[in-house]
UniProtKB/TrEMBL annotation:
<dbReference type="Pfam" id="PF14724">
    <property type="entry name" value="mit_SMPDase"/>
</dbReference>
<dbReference type="GO" id="GO:0046513">
    <property type="term" value="P:ceramide biosynthetic process"/>
</dbReference>
<dbReference type="GO" id="GO:0046475">
    <property type="term" value="P:glycerophospholipid catabolic process"/>
</dbReference>
<feature type="transmembrane region" description="Helical">
    <location>
        <begin position="747"/>
        <end position="767"/>
    </location>
</feature>
<feature type="transmembrane region" description="Helical">
    <location>
        <begin position="773"/>
        <end position="791"/>
    </location>
</feature>
<dbReference type="GO" id="GO:0050290">
    <property type="term" value="F:sphingomyelin phosphodiesterase D activity"/>
</dbReference>
<keyword id="KW-1133">Transmembrane helix</keyword>
<dbReference type="GO" id="GO:0016020">
    <property type="term" value="C:membrane"/>
</dbReference>
<keyword id="KW-0812">Transmembrane</keyword>
<dbReference type="InterPro" id="IPR024129">
    <property type="entry name" value="Sphingomy_SMPD4"/>
</dbReference>
<protein>
    <submittedName>
        <fullName>Sphingomyelin phosphodiesterase 4</fullName>
    </submittedName>
</protein>
<keyword id="KW-0472">Membrane</keyword>
<dbReference type="GO" id="GO:0006685">
    <property type="term" value="P:sphingomyelin catabolic process"/>
</dbReference>
C-alpha cells in the first residue's frame, strides 16, 4: 500500500482489511513489504495479530487465510507466498522488528494441546517450559485464561496450528500434498532454525533491552534437564506462583531454535498424556484428537530433519562429551552442539511415542496407514540420516553399527511395543491388496537389517535384569529417558547404569506397573507363526485370483474388441479390487515372499519347519476349499456371516458368488446394448408379462412336456443354483424365479449383428424378410424342443 504520509494505526489496519478483499495477492504482498519497511514497530504492532490470522487462518477454522495447505508449486501464487513467508522474508523481518520491542500477544488457553490445557485448568504448571511465565489472569476469572506470547512465539504458534486447524476445503480439493506451500515452508524453517551445518543466522534487529526472554528458563548448569517428563518439583508448583525468568546469555544463541521445535512438538504431537494414553486402551473412551494423513506426513518431515540435525554433531564434540564428567558442560560445547546432542531424546521421544501408539490403535485399516508406518520407520532408523555417502549399501545389506546400541536401548519401546502394535493391525488387514502387502514387507525389511534384531534383543535382556540391579526403584517422575551424554558415544558406563537407562525409558513411558511383553519371547513367537500362516494364505489367494484373471483373459475372444464377448456381468470375477489384479497381484506375491524371508531372519525360524508349515497349508487349501462358501448360518433373511466367515473373507480364503439381486430387466444399460431398444423392448415385455403373467406361471408349473418347454423359454434354469451361493433374502430368491418374457437380448449389438447376417444370407437365398423371420422362429422353436427332450441326457453323459 502506498503511504506517503504517516497514517493513524486504525486507518492502516482498516485499509489493509479493505485491500484483502479487493487486491490480488501479489499487490497485497508488495504493499505489505513497503509497510514493514516504512512503519515503526509501534504501529506495526497493531496490525500484526490481524496479519498473522489473515495469512494462516483463524484458530477456530472460520477464516481460511491464504490456504497454504492447498497452494502447490503449480499455482501462480506459490512464488509470491514463498518470497513473503520464507525465513529471511518480509514476514519474518516484521517478527524480528516487533521482537526487539518485546511486544506480547494473547492466545486463549482453549487452543492449547489437551494435556497442557488440562494442567493449566487444574492449576498445575505444564511440563513444557514454553508455556511457563505466560499466563494472563483476566478479571472475568480463570475460565477465560490466556497466554501471552512474544512475536516469534505467536507467529510460530499460528504457523504450527495451521496444520491441525479445522478447514472447509473447496469441493475436490484437500490438503496432504508434499509439494504444498505449507509443507515446503516447514522444511525451510527446519533447515534455517535447526541447521545441520553452521549456526542459526542472527536477527537483523538488535534488542534495545539487551536480551530476549528465553523460551525455556534455565541456568547453565541445568540446561535441558528434565524436559519431556513430569518432574516431582514441577508438579508441586502452582500456576499462581510462576518462577521468574533469568535469561541465560549463552542460551540466546539458540532460543529461536528451541522455541520453534517446542512449538512444533507441542502443537503437532502433544495431544495425549501418559494417563490419557492408558485410558485410550479401552475402546469405550472417545478419541480426543485424530490426526490426518497430511498431519502425519509433516511429522515425518520433522522426524527426518531432527535425526539429520542431531547426527551433524561434530566428532570432536562427541569425543569430548563422552570423556567429560559433565555432559552439559558449556566449557567444551556450544549451546547449539549441546542442543543437537539431546534434541531427539528430550524433546521428541515421549510425545512421538504416544502419538504413534494412538495412530497404531485407531487408524483405519487401509493403505493410508503407510504415512504413519513410514514415520515410525524413519524414527527407528537414525543411521539413515547421518549424511555419510561413502560405500552406499541397500537397506537389506546395511549392518547397523554397534554405536547405535544406546539409541536403541533408550528407545526400546518404539521398536518392540510398536512392532507388536503393527502386528496386531497386520493380522486384520487384507494382505491380498498390494499396498497392504507392501507395508508388511517394509517393516520386515527394516527389522531384518543385520545386527538390529540382536541389538533389540540385548536391550530387552537389559530391561529384564533382576530388580536388585537398581538399589531402589526411583519415582517415575525422576526416571528421565537419558541422563546426560550422547547416544552416539561409546558405552563406557557401568552395567548398572545401562540397565537403569533402559528401565527408566520403559517406566517413564508405560508406568512402573507395566507388564512388558518381549518382542523375542515365546508368546510373540507364536503370534509370528500365526501371522506367517496368514501371509501364506494371502499368497495363495493372490495366486488363485491371478490365475483366474489369466484364464479369463486367455478365453476372451477377438470379438471382445468389438464388445461382442460374453455379456453376463454376473459371471465376471468379483473377488478382487481393481488395483488387486494383473501386475498388482504379482507384486503382492513378491512382497509377501520377501516378507516371509525377512521374518524368518528376524526371529531365526527353522527353515525346515517353515517349509513344512507352508506345504501343509497348501495341501489343506485346494481349489475345492476355495470355492466353498464362507462360514455362515441360515436365518429368515438368508445367510448370515459368522466371525469365522468374516475372517475367511478378509483373508481371501472363501467368498460369496455375489449376484445381481434386482430385476434383471432393470440392470444398467451396457455399452454393447442399444439404449433406445432396451427401453422399448422393456415396455413391450412388461405389457406381455402383466397381461399373460398368470398363464405363464400356470404353464411353467406343469410337469409334462409343455411345462418343461415353457420353463426353458420363460425362466433362467441356472438362476436358482447361482442364487443359492449368494447372500440374499428368500423374497428376492422367489421373485427371481417367476416366469417372464425377456426381450432384452434382442437389444444387444451382437444379436443385431447376427440377425443382420442371417437376413443377408436370406437375401442371397432369395428369401424375403417374412420368410427369414419364420425360418428363424421355427429353428429356435425346434432347438428348444430338442433341448427339452434330450438336454437332461446330454448333461448326464
Amino acid at each position: 500500500m502506498s503511504a506517503p504520509t504517516l497514517q493513524q494505526p486504525s486507518f492502516l489496519l482498516a485499509n489493509l482489511k479493505a485491500d484483502s478483499t479487493t487486491k490480488p495477492l501479489l499487490q497485497r504482498c508488495q504493499d505489505l513489504v513497503r509497510i514493514i519497511d516504512e512503519y515503526p514497530a509501534k504501529e506495526l504492532h497493531l496490525i500484526f495479530p490481524w496479519l498473522v490470522e489473515n495469512v494462516f487462518g483463524s484458530l477456530d477454522g472460520v477464516i481460511a487465510g491464504w490456504n497454504l495447505r492447498l497452494v502447490n508449486s503449480r499455482s501462480s501464487e506459490y512464488g509470491v507466498l514463498m518470497d513473503f513467508l520464507n525465513p529471511g522474508g518480509p514476514m519474518m523481518k516484521l517478527v524480528y522488528k516487533l521482537q526487539a520491542e518485546e511486544y506480547k500477544y494473547e492466545i486463549p488457553v482453549n487452543y492449547l494441546p489437551g494435556p497442557v490445557k488440562a494442567c493449566i485448568q487444574e492449576g498445575v504448571l505444564p511440563d513444557c517450559p514454553l508455556f511457563h511465565n505466560k499466563l494472563q489472569f483476566p478479571l472475568s476469572g480463570v475460565l477465560a485464561l490466556n497466554i501471552a506470547l512474544n512475536p516469534f512465539e505467536f507467529f510460530m504458534f499460528h504457523f504450527a496450528f495451521c496444520l491441525i486447524a479445522p478447514r472447509n476445503f473447496p469441493p475436490g480439493q484437500h490438503g496432504g500434498s508434499t509439494d504444498s506451500a505449507y509443507f515446503v515452508l516447514v522444511d525451510m524453517y527446519l533447515k534455517y532454525f535447526l541447521p545441520s551445518e553452521g549456526n542459526v543466522p542472527p536477527s537483523p534487529f538488535s534488542d534495545s533491552r539487551g536480551s530476549v526472554t528465553a523460551a525455556s528458563p534455565r541456568s547453565s548448569g541445568t540446561s535441558f534437564a528434565g524436559y519431556g517428563v513430569h518432574s516431582p518439583s514441577l508438579l508441586k508448583h502452582h500456576i499462581f506462583h510462576q518462577p521468574s525468568v533469568n535469561a541465560d546469555p549463552a542460551a540466546q544463541e539458540i532460543w529461536r531454535s528451541e522455541t520453534l521445535l517446542q512449538m512444533f512438538v507441542e502443537i503437532w504431537l502433544h495431544h495425549y498424556s501418559l494417563e490419557m494414553y492408558q485410558k485410550l486402551q479401552s475402546p469405550q473412551v472417545k478419541e480426543p484428537f485424530s490426526p490426518s494423513e497430511e498431519h502425519v506426513l509433516v511429522v515425518r518431515l520433522l522426524v527426518k530433519h531432527l535425526h539429520a540435525f542431531a547426527n551433524s554433531l561434530k566428532p570432536e564434540q562427541l569425543s569430548s562429551s563422552s570423556s567429560s564428567p559433565s555432559a552439559h558442560s558449556h566449557t567444551h560445547t556450544s549451546p547449539l552442539e549441546e542442543f543437537k546432542r539431546v534434541v531427539v531424546q528430550r524433546f521428541v521421544q515421549q510425545k512421538l511415542y504416544l502419538f504413534l501408539q494412538h495412530c497404531f490403535g485407531h487408524w483405519p485399516l487401509d493403505a493410508s496407514f503407510r504415512a504413519v508406518l513410514e514415520t515410525w520407520l524413519s524414527y527407528i532408523q537414525p543411521w539413515r540420516y547421518t549424511g555419510e555417502k561413502s560405500n552406499p549399501q541397500p537397506d537389506q545389506n546395511r549392518t547397523v553399527p554397534d554405536k547405535w546400541e544406546p539409541f536403541v536401548d533408550e528407545n526400546l519401546l518404539l521398536y518392540t511395543k510398536l512392532f507388536q502394535g503393527f502386528l496386531n493391525r497386520a493380522v486384520r488387514t487384507d494382505l491380498v491388496n498390494a499396498k497392504n502387502a507392501l507395508m508388511v514387507f517394509r517393516v520386515a525389511k527394516v527389522f531384518a537389517q543385520p545386527n538390529l534384531a540382536e541389538i533389540i534383543q540385548k536391550g530387552e535382556q537389559l530391561f529384564l535384569e533382576p530388580e536388585h540391579v537398581l538399589h531402589h526403584r526411583q519415582p517415575r517422575g525422576y526416571l528421565t529417558p537419558s541422563q546426560g551424554g550422547s547416544y552416539l558415544s561409546s558405552r563406557q558406563r557401568a552395567a548398572t547404569d545401562t540397565v537403569f537407562k533402559v528401565k527408566s525409558h520403559v517406566y517413564s513411558l508405560e508406568g512402573q506397573d507395566c507388564q512388558y511383553k518381549q518382542m523375542f519371547g515365546s508368546e510373540l513367537r507364536g503370534a509370528i507363526l500365526n501371522f506367517i500362516q496368514i501371509i501364506a494364505q494371502a499368497r495363495q489367494t493372490a495366486k488363485r485370483i491371478s490365475d483366474q484373471a489369466n484364464e479369463v483373459a486367455a478365453n476372451t475372444s477377438f470379438l471382445s474388441w468389438f464388445g461382442l464377448s460374453s455379456a453376463d456381468v454376473n459371471n465376471t470375477f468379483t473377488g478382487a479390487e481393481p488395483e488387486d489384479s494383473g501386475e498388482c497381484l504379482r507384486r503382492t506375491h513378491e512382497f509377501l515372499d520377501r516378507a516371509l524371508e525377512n521374518l524368518s531372519l528376524i526371529f531365526k525360524l527353522n527353515q525346515g519347519q517353515l517349509t513344512q508349515l507352508m506345504s501343509t497349508l497348501s495341501s489343506s487349501q485346494d481349489d475345492g476349499l476355495s470355492k466353498q462358501l464362507p462360514d455362515c448360518v441360515h436365518g429368515e433373511n438368508g445367510l448370515t456371516l459368522t466371525d469365522l466367515g468374516r475372517r475367511q473373507i478378509i483373508n481371501g480364503l472363501r467368498r460369496f458368488d455375489i449376484q445381481y439381486q434386482g430385476d434383471p430387466e432393470l440392470q444398467p444399460i451396457r455399452s454393447y446394448e442399444n439404449a433406445l431398444l432396451v427401453r422399448f423392448l422393456y415396455r413391450v415385455s412388461s405389457l406381455v408379462n402383466d397381461s399373460l403373467g398368470g398363464h405363464m406361471t400356470s404353464l411353467c408349473s406343469r410337469s409334462d412336456f409343455l411345462g418343461r418347454l415353457g420353463r426353458r423359454y420363460l425362466t433362467d434354469p441356472g438362476s436358482s443354483v447361482r442364487l443359492k451361493q449368494s447372500p440374499m433374502s428368500r423374497r428376492t430368491l422367489e421373485r427371481s424365479r417367476r416366469p417372464r418374457l425377456s426381450l432384452r437380448p434382442l437389444a444387444s449389438y451382437r444379436t443385431l449383428l447376427l440377425l443382420l447376417l442371417f437376413y443377408g444370407l436370406g437375401v442371397l437365398l432369395s428369401l424375403g424378410p417374412v420368410s427369414s423371420m419364420a425360418l428363424l422362429m421355427a429353428g429356435g422353436f425346434l432347438y428348444g424342443v430338442l433341448m427339452t427332450l434330450f438336454g437332461d441326457k446330454l448333461k448326464t453323459q
